[in-house]
Each structure stands twice: as structure tokens, then as C-alpha cells.
């Protein structure tokens, strides 16, 4: 059990910091160093060294490894408008990313059009968001024919399914843009073999499209990976950076298509979603089997994690969170973390193998290509909603002041 009073005090401090508007034109070092001086200097030094230069690409020392980072400050709006003045950005698909990236591009004043199926849910959503049929909203083929930069933001399974129709329209001089390396990297499975005479670039926001939009509206920007798969013009990397800024990124981290797709599929199955859900369930079930009430099991598994401790890790790092807890909590957590790590590492290695050898890609293609995949997914979500842990969670959340009438 963590030290409640200290945690409570920090929680409100962190909440204030999280709620505070970020200064838009801050420097990268300022952003990384935005913690109270002297509190966790060792952790701060280990996370990132100073930017090596003021403008252009920055080489940043991430805990001893130097990496290149690009930032939005080098691409003010006027420069973006000039850079893309002869381009039509055809954004194909209007799911989470299409929505976020498309609206940000539109607000940035760029010439962006949306292409989706006329009978689909996305068409209706695009109309609701102010895209106008025949003006900047078209069916997929018409949008591609008008575009110079084709942003393929269909679902990954749909990218594979529609490729035979899309490929012939990607004529010389166009640029093909992805937000995930999935389709070209696993081309043996997806059949997405890109034409040899187009630039192929990637901007992969590290978060949901909803966050791409909300951070942009707050005057901030999401972190994104950028990569080049094929550089025909010699300008592909620059184009990827400019596109990254245009869709609403704050900082852009250079990677490869392969590294992006491996790390992304691995992470979402692991600590980001699947792994953490599995761990919540395991801890909750043991507490319930050992006679604890649903509220106690939920509070000790999820509520304290998400409302108190995880935000501390996010704001200031793991050592800060440890420091915010009791000596009893710290001792046990330090001892048990290595046992969990040793137990889970083989599972993570299995997962990485399944990602790299394409099994996870094949599973996703098979499942998400089924005509009734939405209904099947909804059934699985209902099963999750019906689990006692999440029903208990709903009741616990209902007690929060903001959820009480
Ligand atoms: N979501 C994220 O958090 C996230 C984050 C980073 C990167 N990405 C990547 O961004 C890309 C887009 O992902 P997303 O989550 O935004 O979208 P998504 O929900 O996976 O895909 C939705 C879009 O695909 C269209 N679609 C599905 N099947 C189709 C078909 N057979 N023909 C034509 N259109 C079809 C849907 O149109 P209808 O409404 O007409 O069905 C909808 O516009 C993916 O490569 C994904 O990996 C996603």
C-alpha cells in the first residue's frame, strides 16, 4: 500500500501540472527538463541530455544513446504552406487517425481532401466534421486520382484488401504515406508491394487519433515516428518531417518502417494494452478468490494505479513514484519487480517472435478482414464490460465528484 497522504498531495500537484497549458514554443530540453529542480536529478540526467544544436535536426542523448529528433518549431505554418503549395493531400480512410490528422491538416490551411466509401460510417462522420461532398470529400478512387500525396489511413486489413484497386492509381510522382509500417513491411502477407517510382513515407503518431487532435487543439503536439521506405526524389525524408508537423506532431523520432511496426505491434500487445489488462485481471482475481470485496480489489488494482501512481510515473519517472510511496511499499515493490520481470520476459520474447515472423500480422488480417469483424469485436467488448472488475470499476468511477449529479 502506498503512502496515501504523500501520494494524495502529489496527485493534486501532478493534476495541476497536467492541466496547466503548455507553452507552445518551448525548447526540447525545456520540455524534457520540466520537473522541479533538484528533486530527481539522477533520473533526469539519465533520460535525456541537452539538445546539441538550436535548429534543424537535433541529436539528443537518450540515456547514453544518441538519436535524431526533429521538431515542429522548424516548420512554422507559412513554411508548411509554401512547402505543400502544389500538393493535394488525399487522406484515404476516416477512422481515428483520419479524423485527427485530417482536421489538423485542414486547420493548418493545407489543401486536404478525404476519400472514403460512400455507404460507410466514415462518410457520415466526415460530413459531420464539416467535409463537403464533391468539394473536399470524395469516394476513395476519386480522392486518389486528385491527390499528389496519398495518405493511406484505411484500417490495416482494408489496406491489404483494397490494394489491387489502389496500386494502379499510384502513378509516378505521387507520394504514398502510411501511419503504420504494417502493409509494406509484411508485404508477403498483405500483398502491398509499393510501385518502384513513388516516394513511400511514414508518420506514425504515438497515440490515438483522438489525442492527435486534442493535443493539436491545446497548442501542443503528439510525439510521432517518421521513416522512409522508398526515396525516389531524394526528398522523401524532408517530406516525411513536413507531413509529420502538418498532421499535428510536436516531436518526430526517426526510425525505419520495420522498427516502427515491430515495436508498435509488440507494445500494444504488451504493456500498453494486452499485458496490462492481463496483469489487472490476474491481480484482481486473486484478491477476489482470497475473500476481498470487489471495491477493495478494484481500488487496489486499477483505481490507485491509474488515478495516483501511473500519472506520477508519466510525469516524473519510476523513481519519483517510488519516492512518493511508503518505505514498506518501496521495499516490496523493488523485491517483486525483478520476479515479475524474470517471469514475464519469456512471454515478451515469445510475443516479439510472433510479431517479427508475421504471425500477429496474419492473425490481424484474418480476423479484421471478416465482413462481420465489427460485430465480433463488439461481442468481445461486451464480454469485457461484463467482467466483474470493470463493472466494479464503473461503480467506483461513479463516486468521483465529477460523476455525481
Ligand atoms: N488508431 C490508432 O490509435 C493508430 C495510431 C497510430 C497509427 N495507426 C494506423 O493508422 C491507420 C488507420 O488506423 P485508424 O485506427 O485510424 O483506422 P481504422 O479504424 O483501423 O480504419 C478505419 C477506416 O478504414 C475504412 N475501411 C475499413 N474497411 C474498408 C474497406 N474494405 N474499404 C474501404 N474502407 C475501409 C473505414 O471506412 P468505413 O467507415 O467506410 O468502414 C474507416 O474509414 C492504420 O494503419 C493504423 O495502424 C492507428
UniProtKB/TrEMBL annotation:
Its EC number is 1.1.1.86. Mg(2+) 2 binds at residues 264, 300, 304. Keywords: Amino-acid biosynthesis, Branched-chain amino acid biosynthesis, Isomerase, Magnesium, Metal-binding, Mitochondrion, NADP, Oxidoreductase, Transit peptide. It catalyses: (2R,3R)-2,3-dihydroxy-3-methylpentanoate + NADP(+) = (S)-2-ethyl-2-hydroxy-3-oxobutanoate + NADPH + H(+); (2R)-2,3-dihydroxy-3-methylbutanoate + NADP(+) = (2S)-2-acetolactate + NADPH + H(+). Pathway: Amino-acid biosynthesis; L-valine biosynthesis; L-valine from pyruvate: step 2/4; Amino-acid biosynthesis; L-isoleucine biosynthesis; L-isoleucine from 2-oxobutanoate: step 2/4. GO terms for molecular function: double-stranded DNA binding; isomerase activity; ketol-acid reductoisomerase activity; metal ion binding. Residues 65-255 form the KARI N-terminal Rossmann domain. One of its GO terms (biological process) is L-valine biosynthetic process. One of its GO terms (cellular component) is mitochondrial nucleoid. It is found in: Mitochondrion. Binds 2 magnesium ions per subunit. Residues 256-403 form the KARI C-terminal knotted domain. Mg(2+) 1 binds at residues 264, 268. InterPro entries: 6-PGluconate_DH-like_C_sf, 6PGD_dom2, KARI, KARI_C, KARI_N, KetolA_reductoisomerase_fun, NAD(P)-bd_dom_sf. Its cofactor is Mg(2+). Substrate binds at residue 326. It holds the Pfam family KARI_N. Belongs to the ketol-acid reductoisomerase family. PANTHER family: KETOL-ACID REDUCTOISOMERASE, MITOCHONDRIAL. This is Ketol-acid reductoisomerase, mitochondrial. It comes from Xylona heveae (strain CBS 132557 / TC161).
Amino acid at each position: 500500500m502506498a503512502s496515501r497522504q504523500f501520494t494524495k498531495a502529489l496527485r493534486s500537484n501532478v493534476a495541476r501540472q497536467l492541466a496547466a497549458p503548455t507553452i507552445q514554443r518551448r525548447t526540447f530540453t525545456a520540455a524534457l527538463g520540466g520537473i522541479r529542480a533538484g528533486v530527481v536529478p539522477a533520473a533526469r540526467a539519465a533520460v535525456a541530455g541537452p539538445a546539441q544544436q538550436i535548429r534543424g535536426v537535433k541529436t539528443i542523448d537518450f540515456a547514453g544513446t544518441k538519436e535524431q529528433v526533429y521538431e515542429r518549431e522548424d516548420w512554422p505554418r507559412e513554411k508548411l504552406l509554401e512547402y505543400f503549395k502544389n500538393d493535394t493531400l488525399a487522406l484515404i480512410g476516416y477512422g481515428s487517425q483520419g479524423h485527427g490528422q485530417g482536421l489538423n491538416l485542414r486547420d493548418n490551411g493545407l489543401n486536404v481532401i478525404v476519400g472514403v466509401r460512400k455507404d460507410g460510417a466514415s462518410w457520415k462522420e466526415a460530413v459531420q466534421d464539416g467535409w463537403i461532398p464533391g468539394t473536399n470529400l470524395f469516394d476513395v478512387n476519386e480522392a486518389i486520382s486528385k491527390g499528389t500525396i496519398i495518405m493511406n489511413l484505411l484500417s490495416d486489413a482494408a489496406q491489404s484488401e483494397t490494394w489491387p484497386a489502389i496500386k494502379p492509381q499510384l502513378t509516378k510522382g505521387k507520394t504514398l504515406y502510411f501511419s503504420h509500417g504494417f502493409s509494406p513491411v509484411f508485404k508477403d502477407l498483405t500483398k502491398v508491394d509499393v510501385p518502384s517510382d513513388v516516394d513511400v513515407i511514414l508518420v506514425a503518431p504515438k497515440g490515438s487519433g483522438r489525442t492527435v487532435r486534442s493535443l493539436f487543439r491545446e497548442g501542443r503536439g503528439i510525439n510521432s515516428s517518421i521513416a522512409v521506405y522508398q526515396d525516389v526524389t531524394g526528398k522523401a525524408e524532408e517530406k516525411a518531417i513536413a507531413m509529420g508537423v502538418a498532421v499535428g506532431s510536436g516531436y518526430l523520432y526517426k526510425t525505419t518502417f520495420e522498427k516502427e511496426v515491430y515495436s508498435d505491434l509488440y507494445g500494444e500487445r504488451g504493456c500498453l494494452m494486452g499485458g496490462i489488462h492481463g496483469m489487472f485481471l490476474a491481480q484482481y482475481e486473486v484478491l477476489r478468490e482470497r475473500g476481498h470485496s470487489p471495491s477493495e480489489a478494484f481500488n487496489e488494482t486499477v483505481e490507485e494505479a491509474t488515478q495516483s501512481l501511473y500519472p506520477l510515473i508519466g510525469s516524473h519517472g519510476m523513481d519519483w513514484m517510488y519516492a512518493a510511496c511508503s518505505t514498506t511499499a518501496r521495499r516490496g515493490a523493488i523485491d517483486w519487480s525483478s520476479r515479475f520481470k524474470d517471469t514475464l520476459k519469456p512471454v515478451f520474447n515469445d510475443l516479439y517472435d510472433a510479431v517479427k515472423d508475421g504471425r500477429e500480422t496474419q492473425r490481424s488480417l484474418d480476423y479484421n478482414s471478416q465482413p462481420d469483424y465489427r460485430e465480433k469485436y463488439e461481442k468481445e467488448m461486451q464480454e469485457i464490460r461484463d467482467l466483474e472488475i470493470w463493472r466494479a470499476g464503473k461503480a467506483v468511477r461513479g463516486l468521483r465528484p465529477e460523476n455525481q449529479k
